[in-house]
Amino acid sequence: MAEIGAGLVVLLGVARGDTDAGGDRLATKIAALRIFENEEGKFDRSLLDVNGDALVVSQFTLIADSRRQKGTRPDFSQAAPREEAEPLYERFCTALAATGVPIQTGAFGAYMRLELANDGPVTIVLDT
Q1: How many CA atoms are closer than 13 Å to the CA of 65, on its beta-carbon side?
Q2: Which of 6, 23, 39, 128 has CB atoms 3.0–4.6 Å from 92's, for a disulfide?
Q3: Candidate list 19, 61, 94, 128, residue with the active-site label
Q4: % of residues, the chain, pLDDT over 90
Q5: Whole-prediction pTM
């Protein structure tokens, strides 16, 4: 079981056409994104600044397209197949760790029970 203290939960969806370079850019961006408050309550600190951890969980359902005109079933066809997605997920985790952020990971493609305590008003969707 993976567990972190203060930091970020990164739900990572890998889409068809995603690249190593895009994952590397995203890892760098996440490490440096100033979304933690300073003493004045302003978002001015990064994950690196606060010595935070990251829990990275693969989440293909983020790629779901629910804009269909008919029906209510999400379309997952733009999610990368496992043989493409898993190496990109692993590469992203390696790139994030290389920035100096301590990481924990979920089990790729596994059914997982995830519990998180969201401490603050920040939930952000990032795209490469």
Answers
A1: 10
A2: 23
A3: 61
A4: 62
A5: 0.91
